[in-house]
């Protein structure tokens, strides 16, 4: 049974072998190129006229296949071939010699630009100086006319090629630096997102567990039924928190292209927060106003986490047993308000709850307000714009 050749292997082999085939053929072309002007000894008949320029062109074209991987080697072979052909052409036509000189060395000058763009200055600068010196020497050794003009043209061409190559190299380095900074910022943003998720998730659950554990410890001897209820609340809250932690860690371990099978918390899960608040001793009055349509997952998750953090703050800091949550969905905007009638007070500088809520709203292009109420208590208000796809 014949063995099938992998479809991608053959092009890779050809791309590696063909450049060296051109390098192997270059000495043969260099040998015959000096005779192309008269066609003597080549046996091309009437075809010798186009060969006058084709063979010298092949001298600098055959090593070009090495430019992507070995540009310095390609430049050296081109320079050597052009020098040998220009110095060994035996012709009385000065114009032909000038044509060959321009044809070959201008290609070499372009290659100088490629080398400058793809290699460090430590390697590119000596190569550029070597090419310039060789071209000037050949311009004066060649018996053709106008050696000064050709030398000046060599200087201008090489300086231009080196300048363009340096500019390309600088732009590549700048682009690489931008990509590196973007990658670093993406990593930092992802770390902040993970920290925010874990804070919002764990802080709420630990707050409920701490309150219920305190209640259970106080009434375990006098009111066993209430102590058992507190323990059940602690168990349920712990299980929910562990499930969310598993979901978060699982999302981090999955490849970016893999889709999550677990639903993302959203507006439909706000009732869970109401029940958790009640377990912690705070009655949460949840009101939904306006349209009842699905919103994007990122907006739904942001609302869920913001309400979760706000209710947690009421449980831990407000000193009240009630709070109100209003979710108002309009045609182009989703509003969320969490208000309590507790102790109030200024926004503290410690902790990450308020900061995390503000960051979530800022990432979605919304408006965030957190401040004590005029008559006491505390108010958290959020306005999130809805995309057109949701509001149509």
From TrEMBL:
Native organism: Micromonospora pallida
Protein name: histidine kinase
UniProt key word Transmembrane helix: yes
Residues spanning the membrane: 49-67, 72-89, 101-117, 124-145, 151-170
Keyword ATP-binding: yes
A Gene Ontology cellular-component term: membrane
Domain (Histidine kinase/HSP90-like ATPase): residue spans on this chain: 298-388
Protein origin, superkingdom: Bacteria
């Amino acid at each position: 049974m014949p063995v099938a050749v992998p479809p991608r292997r053959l092009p890779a082999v050809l791309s590696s072998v063909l450049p060296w085939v051109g390098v192997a053929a270059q000495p043969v072309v260099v040998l015959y190129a000096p005779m192309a002007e008269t066609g003597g000894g080549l046996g091309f008949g009437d075809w010798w006229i186009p060969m006058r320029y084709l063979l010298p062109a092949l001298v600098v074209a055959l090593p070009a296949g090495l430019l992507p991987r070995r540009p310095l080697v390609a430049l050296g072979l081109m320079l050597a071939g052009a020098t040998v052909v220009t110095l060994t052409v035996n012709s009385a036509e000065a114009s032909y010699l000038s044509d060959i000189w321009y044809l070959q060395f201008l290609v070499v000058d372009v290659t100088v630009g490629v080398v400058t763009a793809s290699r460090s200055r430590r390697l590119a600068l000596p190569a550029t100086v070597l090419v310039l010196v060789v071209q000037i020497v050949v311009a004066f050794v060649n018996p053709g006319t106008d050696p000064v003009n050709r030398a000046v043209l060599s200087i201008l061409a090489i300086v231009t090629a080196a300048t363009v190559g340096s500019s390309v190299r600088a732009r590549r380095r700048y682009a690489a630096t931008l990509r590196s900074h973007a990658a670093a910022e993406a990593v930092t943003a992802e770390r902040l997102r993970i920290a925010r998720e874990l804070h919002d998730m764990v802080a709420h659950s630990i707050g409920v567990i701490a309150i219920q554990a305190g209640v259970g410890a106080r009434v375990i001897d006098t009111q066993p039924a209430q102590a058992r209820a507190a323990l059940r609340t602690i168990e349920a809250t712990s299980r929910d928190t562990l499930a969310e932690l598993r979901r978060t860690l699982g999302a981090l371990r999955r490849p970016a292209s893999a889709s999550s099978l677990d639903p993302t918390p959203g507006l439909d899960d706000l009732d869970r927060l109401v029940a958790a608040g009640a377990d912690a001793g705070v009655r949460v009055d949840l009101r939904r106003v306006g349209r009842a349509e699905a919103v994007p997952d990122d907006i739904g998750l942001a609302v869920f986490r913001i309400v979760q953090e706000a209710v947690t703050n009421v449980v831990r800091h407000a000193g009240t047993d009630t709070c109100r949550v209003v979710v108002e969905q309009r045609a182009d905007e989703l509003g969320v308000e969490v208000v309590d009638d507790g102790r109030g007070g200024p926004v503290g500088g410690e902790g990450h709850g308020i900061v995390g809520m503000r960051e979530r709203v800022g990432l979605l292009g919304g408006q965030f307000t957190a401040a004590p109420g005029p008559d006491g208590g505390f108010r958290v208000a959020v306005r999130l714009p809805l995309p057109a796809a949701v509001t149509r």
